[in-house]
Amino acid sequence: MRPFDYQRATSFDDVSAGQIIAGGTNLLDLMKIQVMTPDTLVDITRLEGLSEIQAEGEGLRIGALVTNSALANDARVRAGWPLLSRAILAGASAQIRNKATTGGNLLQRTRCPYFYDTSQACNKRTPGEGCAAQGGAGRMLALFGTSEHCLAAHPSDMAVALTALEAAVEIRSADGETRQVPMHEFYRGPGDRPDIENGLGKGDLITAVILPSPHAGARQTYRKVRDRASYAFALVSVAGSVAMEGDTITQVSLAYGSVAPHPWMDHDVVQLLQGETASNALFERAADALVPDSAPHPDTDYKRNLLRRTFIATMRQLTGPGDTAGTDIARTQG
Amino acid sequence: MTDRFTMDEPQPRLLDETGQGVIGTPMDRPDGPQKVSGTAGYTADHPAPEGMAHGYLVRATIARGKVLKIDREGAMGLEGVLDVITDPRMTRNPAQGMAGEAPVQPADAVHYHGQPIALVVASTFEAARDAAQRLSVEYETEDAAVSPGNTRDTEVDDPETAGDFDAAWDSSEVTVDLNYTTPSHAAAAMEPHAAVAQWNGDAVELRGSLQMVRFNKKELADSLGIDASQVRILSPFVGGGFGSKLGIGPEAVAAAIASQKLGRPVRVVMTRQNVFDMILRRSETAQHVRLGATRDGRITAISHDDRVSNLDEEGFAEPVSQASQFLYGADGLSFTQTVARIAATPAGSVRAPGEAVGMVAFEAAIDELADKLGMDPLDLRLKNLPEKHPMDGRPYSARRLADCLTEGAELFGWDARWEAGSRREGDWLIGMGMSSAARSNVLVKSAARVRLTGDRAIVETDMTDIGTGSYAILNQIAAEMLGLSPDRVEVRLGDSDLPGASGSGGSFGASSAGSATFLAAKKIRAEIARKIGCSEEALTLQKGRARGDNREADLSGLVTEEIVAEAEIEGGKTAESHFSSGFGAHFAEVAVNEWTGEVRVRRMLGVMSMGRILNEKTARSQALGGMIWGIGTALTEDMQSDSRDGHVVTRDLANYHVPSHADVPGDMQVVFLEERDDWANPIQTKGIGELGISGAGAAVINAISHASGHRIYDIPALPDRVISSFGVK
Ligand SMILES: Cc1cc2nc3c(=O)[nH]c(=O)nc-3n(C[C@H](O)[C@H](O)[C@H](O)COP(=O)(O)OP(=O)(O)OC[C@H]3O[C@@H](n4cnc5c(N)ncnc54)[C@H](O)[C@@H]3O)c2cc1C
Ligand code: SF4
């Protein structure tokens, strides 16, 4: 670890003095192995007003410092947005979730192992250096939205849920202005600068996530498939919320995790499903539209089939009869 | 004076007669409170000696070649840096288990990506690591094959055979011919490797995390070019080893060199990444199993060939077919091993070397043969248990494999087993699988000293406790033999100044060091008998009181002057006349998601016969831990490396997946069948640390096939592999 200065922010004005640290569960790991080497850390955990979950209209305003544990366990979240609760609980471990924050979770870096190993070339770590993952081991890489410069996937579960729930990120800039950016516009693709992962500028602070009201009567679920039963990043995940009238799908929103540099959405798939009668044939067609014909890395070819099957299984759960033995599904209350 | 004992004939069961009532009980480990309160002296937790500096190992970042230049000056300019050390005595990798000599010392040659090439020493760990990270190194690179499939440098051993395999195979009525792969595994002990070295004149004291102190002492001395008498090793607590700490590691040798150069104590602690890069892995395997049988299910031909890998000059090769050679009989058996030489982190012993991966393939093949024969896999196994060791004709010393299989089947409800692929609960397909378990048993030369004053005893040996419970069982043996309550017995371990024991490895520690303790205590019994004037046979020692031939006395009054007894045991003729092995049976029930290919183990049962159980609780923990390793082998553990430069890709525990709690079912049962192995050693025990893993993974793999109706050949059964086994889009 490089020596660094540590400052404790007491007001918003202090934030731009260096690299923000919240729970530190991602940043400190990266600093120890010197993938990130900030000169100054600004600890924002004492800033006031960022640790609450407040009702805002029919929705919620989630402070950036609300821990992943607190958010997942919040009674309102569990009742109204169970998909969010499930996604968070499907991630990391209880100890990490106790420390991890809402803002930090959105900004966690990729788990591409070449990004973590400074003996390997990585454009995300050092733009222009090359991408050693290409031609290497790539089980965790992305399927969609990659560029020739970077194939990495975003690992967050929470961000996938927030995307499906049409949440927005509230950002305060150094000059005190506050703006809201919808989740699906928050991240940017790698292009030729995979080191730049979102639209945040210098001194920008995530202050909250705004969660709109859930679709009434919708069923929600978060389905995460991984290499062990717990404490592993997703191979693929599907976040879904579906409302039905009889057999007809009246509202659907979906997001897919660990398949792209950011939570992935596909409007064509939603279009295909909306207003249609739920059936296996429909889901098969939607899966055909969703899954790409080829993978950017041979090691992620399996994700095409896995995504397809996980998508169909999730849609079956969300639209099927109540009997879902052995699966994890939740119906929103109210 | 040390009594030497050689195991030349079966031994009487004295521990069944002593009657203190301590042996076998589920006694809590005496070191437990220290461990849970953080006061156990693990190497890096031990209070730092005055003036200690911190070393960090620098790794090579090329697969093969030579270090041309290290920018020492640049690094020395960084704050806190004391030295950048390269030294021809530094070692390439840990010594193999029981080597007793220095590992390869490559000087400036680089043999694999990740090899330690220098040690940066600084006043803090952080400064040392930073300087190591920034250190600029110039290399000359050479081409090298880094994966076993690509190297032309292979050694094919002569086949080990019995009977005529080819003839038996040709005349078999039913055959299976199958190929399997397993990946490299990491031991992944919780405590990373660490060492603190300190010189006093020309003698070095090394506190380390090491499993085999008696050997490690010689290995360190040889590495440093000094005499073993100048080395003292202290390893009282080891946070898990699983084979990865058998031999002296590069951290220990480097710490000793640095401490000598700088004239102050030096501590080297590996990071998790260092451990993955530099510590011996379990080799990946490619296995070819051919089995032939008559139509009514008599196995006639067995062949189990394998290819493993290692780095040049490493003598170890994963003994993949070890158990396949003695589990079942056949007219012809043949086993051929190929070792591929590659430039990659070298391979060595990881818990149950051989069986841990060999039995997964072999026992899956046995299952597939049963399928083809239309037989219950349990019946096929029961039908083919040989009378004698199929390779060399030795009788088994004690073998309750048939009992394990039948009692296990009964307890597990095996007869309720349904047709493969026919049971579902929602999206989950349910299946049951089983496997035999076997892990051969050995006795390794060991010495121990027991001291008795009044009713207090001290056991001293350089044996280690790597979390297994040595402190508990050696206490119990001494307490039982001397008629003492366990709280009157103290056990001192892991100090090379104490009598040399086997160390912890190959599941032989409890039997070997335990027998030495038993023999030393037996000597004390003879002395007590003499004191009260009875024959040794007539003596009873219970509750601190000695009795015999109508005489009795309290030990506290009788033994006013310390009695010291030392004994040493060694294997002998019984190892040639009889074949000793632990045996068992594993059963597993799994659920397989028909959409996502996820596998969840729902319950597991291991029934094992492994000689006398010294402590029911620590034995159970060993068995359970082994079974959990079996789950990891079957489902999650997959150490990946880069196919271009061979570097380890899964370098932390977020990427190398040992089973998490959620992977382990609540319903994990272990049942021990009563057994005494009189041919094994004077305490009638067998190794238990590795039997739990041997075959456990196969039970899970077989259960998956039963659930889905499709077989898995590339292990672990990751979700995508399970889906592709379904053979559908
Ligand atoms: C072993 C392990 C397993 C894990 N498994 C999973 C998993 O399965 N699924 C999953 O989703 N996650 C997983 N995680 C990741 C975990 O969720 C993140 O580490 C955590 O959410 C990060 O939050 P933090 O507050 O600790 O962020 P920090 O580490 O403090 O910060 C992360 C980044 O966010 C920036 N930042 C933090 N807060 C703000 C803010 N308010 N405004 C602007 N910038 C900010 C920091 O500057 C830094 O760049 C795992 C982590 C570990 C270590
Ligand atoms: S895929 Fe992206 S993160 Fe991974 S090595 Fe390439 S550039 Fe780096």
Shape of chain B: globular
The radius of gyration of chain A is 20 Å
Kindly give the count of domains of chain B.
3
Q: Tell me the quaternary state.
A: heterodimer
Q: How many alpha or pi helices of chain B?
A: 17
CATH topology of the largest domain in chain B: Aldehyde Oxidoreductase, domain 4
Provide mean pLDDT of chain B, rounded. Answer: 97
Q: What is the end-to-end distance of chain A?
A: 50 Å
Q: How does the overall form of chain A come out from the CA principal axes?
A: globular
Count the E strands of chain A.
12
What composes the largest sheet of chain A?
5 strands, antiparallel
Indicate the CATH class of the largest domain in chain B: Alpha Beta
Offer a quick outline of the entry.
With 334 residues, chain A is of the alpha+beta class. Helices cover 27% and strands 21% of the residues of chain A.
Main attributes of the structure:
heterodimer, A: 334 residues, alpha+beta, Enolase-like, domain 1, five-stranded antiparallel sheet, four-stranded antiparallel sheet, 21% strand, B: alpha+beta, Aldehyde Oxidoreductase, domain 4, seven-stranded mixed sheet, binds flavin-adenine dinucleotide, binds iron/sulfur cluster
Report on the architecture of this protein.
The complex is a heterodimer of chains A (334) and B (729). Chain A is an alpha+beta fold. Chain A has twelve helices and twelve strands. Among the domains of chain A are: 1-42, no CATH class; 219-331, Enolase-like, domain 1. Chain A is 27% helix and 21% strand. Chain A has a five-stranded antiparallel β-sheet with strand order 4-5-8-6-7. The radius of gyration of chain A is 20 Å and the shape is globular. Chain A starts with a strand and ends with a strand. Mean pLDDT of chain A is 95; it is low at 323-334. In chain B, α11 (470-482) packs parallel to α12. In chain B, β25 and β26 form a beta hairpin. The relative contact order of chain B is 0.15. Chain B folds into three domains: 2-40 and 444-571, Aldehyde Oxidoreductase, domain 4 (2-Layer Sandwich), CATH 3.30.365; 48-144 and 190-240 and 245-279, Aldehyde Oxidoreductase, domain 4; 351-442 and 577-726, 2-Layer Sandwich (Aldehyde Oxidoreductase, domain 4). With 729 residues, chain B is an alpha+beta fold. Chain B has 17 helices and 30 strands. The interface between A and B is large, with 44 and 48 residues. The structure holds flavin-adenine dinucleotide and iron/sulfur cluster.
